[in-house]
Amino acid sequence: MSPTSHISRIRQRIAQLVNERRAAEKVLLERPPLLKGTFSEVRRTCGNPACKCARGEKHLCRQLSASVEGKTRTWNVPRGYAAKVKRLTDNYRRFRRARAAWVRTNQRLLELINELEAARTVPDFRDESGRQKG
Ligand SMILES: [Zn+2]
Questions:
Q1: Domain range summary for the chain, segments of one domain joined by +
Q2: What are the pLDDT digits (tens) for 57-74?
Q3: Which of 22, 39, 47, 103 has the fewest CB atoms within 10 Å, i.e. is most exposed?
């Protein structure tokens, strides 16, 4: 591959990644609040042998789980908060995904910028490729 087409491919890839990074930044700059954790609905028994759940009609429990200082903690979510907790934890997941994409994209961009620097650098001032015409 000629040095020119090599440089041109790196530049195209950089432009592509800059677009991907911009898409991630759009998500990162959104306004809605975030709630760290995962919302889930589980069926469970309460332990009372006289309760209907002991006969198979289990209780529906809504819960929020999140890692706090390296340990997973779980909270019960009252029915009235379920939709809100779901929405806010979805926002959180969306934010975290965009953040991870942003970090990956920047790492890749730095690699490509280094490649570009290497490809554009001439060995010494007598090299003809950087010479102005005319
Ligand atoms: Zn029960």
A1: 3-120
A2: 999 999 999 999 999 999
A3: 47
Is there a contact between 44 and 57 (Cβ–Cβ < 8 Å)?
A: no
Q: In 10 A of CB 85, how many CB atoms?
A: 19
The string of DSSP letters for 29-78 reads T--S----SEEEEEEE--S-TTSGGGGT-PEEEEEEEEEETTEEEEEE--
Q: How far is the CA of 60 from the centre of ligand 1 (A)?
A: 10
User: Distance from the CA of 74 to the center of ligand 1, in angstroms?
Assistant: 19
Which residues, including other chains, have CB under 8 Å from residue 43's CB and lie 6 or more apart?
58, 59, 60, 61
Q: How far apart are the first and last CA of the chain?
A: 27
- What does pTM read for this prediction? 0.81
**The predicted structure's pLDDT at residue 133:** 59
Give residue-wise pLDDT tens across range 75-119: 999 999 999 999 999 999 999 999 999 999 999 999 999 999 999
Would you give the DSSP letter of residue 123? S
CA 30/CA 33 separation, integer angstroms: 9
Q: What is the mean pLDDT of the chain?
A: 94
